[in-house]
Automatic annotation (TrEMBL):
Coiled coil: none annotated. This is TlpA disulfide reductase family protein. Keywords: Cytochrome c-type biogenesis, Disulfide bond, Redox-active center, Signal, Signal-anchor, Transmembrane. Its main location: other. Gene3D superfamilies: Glutaredoxin. It is found in: Cell envelope. It holds the Pfam family AhpC-TSA. It comes from Bacillus daqingensis. Residues 1-22 form the signal peptide. PROSITE patterns: THIOREDOXIN_1 (PS00194), THIOREDOXIN_2 (PS51352). SUPFAM superfamilies: Thioredoxin-like.
Amino acid sequence: MRKWFTLAAAAAALGAALVVIVDYGEDTEESSEALEAYMEAGGIERETLSEEEMVSLDPLDGVGSEPGMQAPDFSLPTLHEDQLSLADLEGDYVVLNIWATWCPPCRDEMPDFAAFYEDYKDDGVHVLGLNRTATEPGIDAVRQFAEDFSIPFPVIIDEEDVVEDLYSVYVMPTTYIITPDGRVAMNRPGYISYDVLEEQYLSIREQYEDEA
C-alpha cells in the first residue's frame, strides 16, 4: 500500500499532490488513506529531524537505512532492462534517490539530480534513481517521466516495492548517500536541492577520506 509522503509545507503543494495521487492511483480509497496518514503525522516537516539523525559516518551494527548502518543490498532491473545490484557499486559513492512520477517534489528536484550526476560522474560517484513502480499506473508513465527530464543516470524499476521495505521508506522523495564501504551516510527525507546535495556529499566525502 502506498505510504505517506512529504511535500513542501505549503498548502498549495499539498493540494497539488492530492490531485496527482487521485489521477494516478488505481484505488482512490488507498490514496485517501495515504493522505490521511500524512495529515495525522503533521506533514513530516524536515525541521523535526536533526542533522545528526540524517547524516552520520559513525558505524552502527546491522543492516538498515539508519546512517552508519550497512546499506541493504538489492538487485533490480533498470528501464533498459539490465539488472543493477547495489553491491556491484561498492568501492564508489552512491547517491540513491527514491521517487515516483505522482510526487510533485520528486519532479521539482529531478533536474538537480541530473545536474549533480553530470558534475560528479567522473568523481567516483554513482547516482541512482529508484522508481517506486508498484505505486505507478504503469511502466509507460515511468518511461515518459525519464524522457521528459532527460534523466542521464540509471532508473531502477521496483515493481514490488522491495526497497520500500528494505529501507523503511515513509517519505517521498527520500535520498541516501552511501559510502564506498557500503554504509549509509545520509538518509534525508523530502525535497533536496542541488546545493544541499552537493554540500552533504562533499562533507561526507571529506570526512570519510580523512578517517580512511
